Amino acid sequence: MDCWCKTGMVTQNKTTECLGDITRGKETSIVHKSYLSMVIAGTLLSGSAPAFADGLLFKEQRARLENKGISFDVRALEDYVSVYKGGKVHKDTWLGRFDLGITLDTQKAGLYKGGKLHVSMMNAHGGLKPTVDMIGDLQTVSNIEAPRSTRLYEAWYEQTLFDGTFSALAGLHDLNSEFAVSDSGALYINSAFGIMPCISANTGTSIYPMPAPGVRVKFSPNEHVDVLAGVYDGDPGDPKINTHSTHLALKSQDGLFSIAEGALHYNLPLAGGLPGTVKTGGWYNSRDVNDVSAVDDRGGPVQHDDNYGGYAIIDQTIYKESEGQGLALFFMGGGAPQDRDTVQRHVGAGLNYTGSIPGRDADVLGVAFTSVQLSNKARAANGKRGETTLEWTYRVNVNDNFAIQPDIQYVMDPSGDPTIK
Q1: Contact call for residues 79 and 134 (beta carbons, < 8 A)
Q2: Rounded CA gap, 172 and 234, in Å?
Q3: Radius of gyration over alpha carbons of the chain, in Å?
Q4: Residue range 313-341, pLDDT digits in tens
Q5: Residue 301: CB partners within 8 Å, gap ≥ 6?
Q6: How would residue 247 be classed by pLDDT, with cut points 50, 70 and 90?
Q7: Are 346 and 370 in contact (CB under 8 A)?
Q8: d(CA 305, CA 34)
Q9: How distant, in Å, are the alpha carbons of 244, 259, 275, 287, 418 from that of 205?
Q10: How confident is the model at residue 254 (pLDDT cuts 50, 70, 90)?
């Protein structure tokens, strides 16, 4: 069966400085979501304390701290979700996320050039979880859904060298703040447009809500090319157990999660230049993983020595109305082996129009779909097929710090499970 979902988002954000894209695509929101059967939800994005501080409080104090290299970012994200028809239960729920981050720039602090130290905490709160408790979908309709907890989120140090062409980062780091990111996909509320299900549903890795320790290097020889590689703990753990992310146990059986990505930035020689980006990447987890369905002579699951997959992303402006306005498309797709993974293939695509309504130059209208194909082995084992979600959204940027974003999601065959009506 399928589901319908309406979503509304209100956002208020102002960051003193970019802190590793803490909440990319995860702002506070009031969401009405529905799944076929039928769900309506609403997302309320409320924003950052610095937004208030800029105009009202501590402006001079914050400016002095920034001059000394200390900046901070505070963001609040709230979702209201109501399932009207379909899914598992017809109820309303509220969930939210609060982030506080602090960054030290060593050069501004008078120490040395190119260093940056970042620490952040995250609080996830609310009632029933839309995907886990109410809908039963696979791709996760709200990208801030997480077990209730207050935890250390990120804690890393980055050093930039050679006039910015090379940087190295080490510490507790959300890899999805840099890897496998579609700039246009960040508009949407469904989690699949942030981290692809061919990664998140198949292997443990360093993403929201529980980043893992790791090392990332980046090489940018010019403005057109970026090459990134990272190695992370292969099993971040269970966020329901390690509720504060303070128990960072590195065990040999956890394996290592490695990821590499190359990005090409370009301008098509049309209409004065249409910017675009193409990214390709691959990942490998050395941790042992069970076969989806095969068993050994003793009746236990057959184990594979590793897991792996690949992905590609395209962001392309196809029509430019004026600077900062126009139509852009995006595509994202990836795959993984069917014998050891639930999601064999994932495809997502969408169109975003910035400034579609006269006088609303910064507003963004978007329509997108995301679809996962379950592996043949998974379908044979449990009768499940695949899941496809359509999402329509319109982000009203009231000002630089505040936005309202109505959103509708239509989920077909949640989790591919025919028992979910």
Answers
A1: no
A2: 13
A3: 21
A4: 999 999 998 888 999 999 999 999 999 99
A5: 290, 291, 294, 295
A6: low
A7: yes
A8: 40
A9: 17, 10, 31, 11, 29
A10: confident
